[in-house]
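Memo to structure team: turn this sequence into structure tokens by end of day. - J.P.
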Amino acid sequence: MANIWIKKPMEAYEADIKKSQLKRVLGKWSLTAIGIGAIIGGGIFVLTGTGAYYNAGPALALSFVIAGIACVFAALCYAEFASILPVEGSAYAYAYGTVGEIFAWIIGWGLILEYAMGSMTVAVSWSGYFGKLLKMFGLHMPAWLTTDPQTYLAAGNSGFSMNLPAFLIVWVVIGILLRGTKGAAKANNFIVMLKVSAIIFVIIVGVFFINPENWHPFIPAATTITENGVSHSAYGYAGVVAGASAIFFAYVGFDAVSTQAGEAIDPKKDVPFAIIASLVICTLLYILVSLVLTGMMHYTDFNPLGKYPDAIKAPVAYAFDIAGQAWAGYIITIAATVGLISVLMVMIMGQSRIFLGMSKDGLIPKTFAKVNPVTGVPSKNLVILGAVISVIASFTPINDLAHMTSFGTLFAFTMVCVAVWVLRVKEPDLQRNFKVPALPVIAVLGIVINIYLIINLSKEAQMYSLGWLVIGFFIYFLYSKRNSKLQNGGFGETFKAEQEPLEDVDIDIDNKH
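Reply from structure team:
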């Protein structure tokens, strides 16, 4: 059992960096755009509606402030780690070199939950905006092709149903990612410019349609909401904290930056910069949009079983519709529909790189470590992810997905705050291009706040997520520990990402060229 705390030596990380088949094509602004691309999406275009109705009411802006503060502590810790270990794998890789294998496995398993559920949430979000976009042009998809079975049956329907648009958009994104990181980054940069412009548009134009009465009371009295036979507490100060927990997954973008360290041109400098820059920019935008949205539309109108049932899926666009500004709804819906694609792209890209790192270490099957030598991406890895994400997204309600994603995110952030503190104590002389100021204070605050937010997640999300961690322990002891390269004498080994073989070609060996 003592071997479960075995640590990956720094020499192995250096070997990873030298032998990596990933292509270093990302500068600091491309990395920042990746962070913004992941952060600005589901949080603004979708979770503003669910957070306002199910948790905080108009005080959702305070929920974003709390979540943003919690993120700052974790972001600083991530930035220090990224300046030390500029490799793919994010918090998993950081923990493996500092605390030990079992700790790294738990974090990696949590990150799988975070990114997989995040991708599914965004796919369902995209489906909602895509459906609204079609309606604007007079096209309507039947409910049984755009709704998960649970929601479909709760609305009084019967028979088969699935969310077909959510299923299809996952494969569109997989197709883009399979072409290579450089092309995907260019597409992401364009989409980020488009949706940031749309968010600024929402803030500036929406101010003129705010009804201050919608903000009264700013923190509604605590009550209980019952939906689909399930009851939970909402509003009040506890609701504000619960809202911060529920929308926390919206901040996963800066974590996604660290998963791309293996493809950064100057990762030790650019990754910390991109992490902090993307977080600061997006937190400000979140706060402003939530204030405008809850000022334009009463928080109770986001009820999925109420007068505007689709408002829960596309809240920003519906707020302008209800304000009588359908023209603005067109702009927002188009921007959100396109913008959410970049979120899904970054989520799946980050997930595949975490799988790549874990596979190279032997903790999951080696097929996830195979990098296509032509495109420089783990293609088999991406296809397997696409299959799983697309199927689950088409059959699962969005609220359950979002909460489980928040658990994975909060759990990983907590572990990173612990690990960076441990490393500072055990390896004080390591070169750090970025150092967390007042580390003990920052680390403790990060740990306490993230654990507190986990406690305030829905009971269902806590149960499902803890069940996921238990399954992870079984997999570790039954498979991962036995196949770990470190457990099998790999301390001095050069860990190589395996390549997919090129197609056989005939070569004229007499041709010296």
